Structure prediction request, 121 residues.
Amino acid sequence: MARIVAVDDVPEAVNVIKRILERKGHSVYAFTEEEDAIAYCKKNEVDIAILDIKLKKLSGIELLEELKKIQPKIKTLMLTGYPTLETAKKAADLGADEYCIKPIEKQDLEAKIESLAVQVR
Prediction:
């Protein structure tokens, strides 16, 4: 199963993602602070990052860029409640694998993560 980092500035959002994906057997590390997620990724191998676009200090796009520098092979799923063509394009240009609109349905989240997990095996 995949090692996943989930980052959202809303604690309830990352906790829901964590519960859903841990039930599927994944190891999920939830963060509400971008710096904590970056520090974790510097010390631990991560397969997939789930990043909200709107965060506290960095944007999810900026965080994606940082994580790709640390772990270039990391797969990423971007989540946003405020979709724009600009953020979708920037995310894709930086190597995001998925770009999804919140709220994401449980089944969609599970399917997208399973698809990404297969790519890292």
About this structure: The chain has one domain: 3-120. The first strand starts at residue 3 and ends at 7. The helical segments are 11-23, 34-43, 60-70, 85-93, 106-120. The domain at 3-120 is CATH 3.40.50.2300 (Rossmann fold).
